[in-house]
Amino acid sequence: MLHRSMSILAAAVIVSLSLAGSVVAEELKGKITKVGSEGREITVAGPGGKEVKVSISGSRTTIEGVKSRGDLKAGQNVTVDHEGGQAKTIKVTK
Prior knowledge:
alpha+beta; six-stranded mixed beta sheet; 41% strand
């Protein structure tokens, strides 16, 4: 009986730890207010004016609507999918 209880407890701990490490992607729609570090990060003002800063990777971030992260400018409307402050996709809209 004790062995079975310990096995169940161990399984619960493993599941809890695996879920704690997972990060859910968030979608942010808004306007770029700042571009920093030569296009390596942008600040986007979302709904209600709340600003969110995200990092942009040359290899892990997909950018649509402009040629490269160097073409991102303040005032552009964007939709950003990000996880933990790291942009996964950036779509520049008109």
